[in-house]
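[Q] Does anyone have a clean structure-token version of this?
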Amino acid sequence: MLLNGKRLGNSGAIEAMPNAAIENIQKTQANGLGPTMAGEIQWNAGTRGGVDGDRKLSCTTGSLASCYIGRFGWLGDRVSLEDQVANAAFVEMNMTTKMGYQQLYPNGNAFPIRYYFPNCGPADEICVTSKGNADLSEKDVERMADYARWLGSPTRSEFTVSLPDVIAGDAIFRQINCNQCHVIDRIPIADPNDTMLTKVYRARLATHIAPPAIPFLSYLGTDLLMHDMGYLSQVGNATNLIRDQVTGVVFPQFKNYVQKIRTPPLKGLRFNRFVTDSHLNTIAATPPNPACDFLLHDGRACDAIEAAFLHDGPAIKKLGVIPALSGLNAQQLQQLRAFLYSL
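[A] Here you go.
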């Protein structure tokens, strides 16, 4: 699966999403869509607050008893920013994290969240015998995670959210069921310990909890669940039909042909084009070519409305999202777009 790098942002809010909220969203989807179509919680081993913090390294129960909920990355396979930083450094840049590995796995581990050996194929002898491109200390990991926490977490403009088109677009977004997965509801944070925030930030957040002034998240635009996105999720070709033609659900024997994708947050979408420089590569034409925001997991969509129309999968079919989108008139589509780019 081709995965496109996105604008960094929302990381602190994703950490602050309560476990209970994610589990409740999943239950709501399962009740409404059925267990085979609902989003899936990705249970993983991991650390909270780095290797010196809380650890759950033998994820066996598929519950909070021994696992964390995967929150980061397109594949939802990292539970904390520290784990995400270490994995990205390893996978993308062949950097090891030996100090953290030795602390977590004194006896070795087959599926680590810190990395002692370089990221090499077994046939690449030169790479296998190398030390990788660099080695990060746990302090390096913690500093980069802290940087990511405070990067790109925008607040919506009070002026913009009061515009009639934005208000109308908000209602349309809910009407056509986009909010079932891109959750924009207010989510209270009643218990800091039910989050993936580090010990320092959990303690700081606790000082702000005094009913009725409970901290909350809103308009984040994600359920942090894994979804089968139909043709967008297919990573293998089969000679036979791999899905039920009515529901779109993959037959059990073909489950390995599909890679589920974590719902990306929508907050900050309005800044994406400035990160991709699409505001600079507009082509002069009549009508003007608005260039490309590179949305969806592989960057194939150039605009939020195009990305919406490209959605697929069993849940999308059952919710009737695409027919609902197709039923919108030009003004309603413009209002929906105004809302999305107000986030």
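[Q] Thanks! Anything notable?
[A] Residues 16 and 37 are 26 Å apart (CA to CA).
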